[in-house]
Amino acid sequence: MSVYKGAEIKVGIFVCIALVALGYMSMQVGQGLFVDKDTKKVSVFFDNVSGLKQGAPVEIAGIEVGQVHSIGLADGRAELTLALDKGIAVPVDVKAVIRTRGVLGDKFVELRGGSPEMPNLEEGQRITRSSSPADLDQLLQKVGQIAEDISTVSQSVSNVFGGEQGEAQLQTIMDNVRELTVTLNGLVQQNAESVERIVANLDGFTADMREMTARNKDQINDAVSDLGAFAANMREITGENKDGIQRIVTNLDRASGKLQTTMQAMQDVLGKVDEGQGTLGTMVNDEEMAYDLKKTMASLESVSRKIDEGRGTLGKLVNDDTTGKELDKALEGVNTFLAKQEQFKTSVDFTSEYLADSGDMKSYLNLKLQPTEDKYYLLSLVDDPKGRTETTSLVRRYKKDGEPWKTYREEEEETQEDGLKFSAQMAKRWNDWVLRGGIIESSGGLGVDYYLWDDRIRLFAEAFDFDDENPPHLKAGGKLYFLNNFYISAGMDDFASDTGDESFFTGLGLRFSDDDLKYILGKTPLPQQ
């Protein structure tokens, strides 16, 4: 019996020791004390660290290089202290980003970028570049607003096509679509070679767009969220201007009433003329006035006979070959001048582009002067939210105990917001290709355009702002023109940047041609003295 009790006592003591050790280890691991002691502590600030826990991993290129040592609050922002492995070289210009592993996975801190020639982070230093993820609640709220807008649109469509009249309208639309399909089929068969070339070009374009979309998936998601906010703003604007829209409808109703009154007055005037009232009525119904009109016609016949005989100045002009030739030359010169003026075309357009990465709007005001079909000049004013940046290079030295002096270069950038830039380019066109160059956004540059689908689609690429230290500013994208005066654009801006300025953009533009400008100026009232 004593043997069994001794064994039980030993087992009990072993279990107690194991439980105490397990509890101690759990507490130490929870406090992060089992992390390798050979670490360096650096800090970084974020606007939002929701979901990030103490002890979360810190990774570079998918490899864990440390952990989140502590999370605190300083000046209204979240301050993280990161414990990084001293054996890992982390440049001072690295960028810290909070990411999520998988769809519903844990959050961790990722370190991106950094220049190898820059010095490494040391104990107690701060990471100055950071980026916080979008809040899930905000995204869900925006999705809810978009769903509400879609519900409103679907209800409007139901109201339009509901009932027998709506069904008849829908059938008419389907018939028109069927006729359009037949017409397009015939057009495609007649232009099979051109269509194949267009399809090949579109295939290459879609491949490039797919690759570009994959590289900028996060920016596109942000752009979709911003579009939801834009739709909500448009709904709010429409609601705020409901009274103004009602006044426009009322003014149109008044104008139609005045037009009806004018038509009734014209009918009364014609009735009086038919009855012989007034001067015009007398001319139509008075026999004496008709006799005077016959005498006038006889006099005109006499004058025309004298002209035919070459008598008088007008007769010589009509019958003399020399005078006629000189007049023909003068008229030919006038026609040549008018033909050149007719070929000269002018257009004005305005476009705003949304930069998905920074959330800013970049606007362009363009004036196109086209003296011939294959040559034009392009003048532009550009409102760039990035402004003008001036870079100052500083050389700093530092020394550790027992080590030689080390030197590194540090650049300071001063940016003037809302910088207004200008462009002045000359362009030459060969078939569907256009080569242009000159000043682009206040710096030298070149551009190339390619037109598709009777100039309804324009693909473009341009390079400017050439600098010895930084890569040039490269921009590429496409524009789709619709409804004569509108176009949409999309593409990638500054995709060769080494400072993180690359961004996907989308835009909407409005353009006016010669005919539009003549119509607008013709309808503009002149000031009264």
From TrEMBL:
Name of the protein: Mammalian cell entry related domain protein
GO terms assigned for molecular function: phospholipid binding; phospholipid transporter activity
Domain Mce/MlaD: 39-113
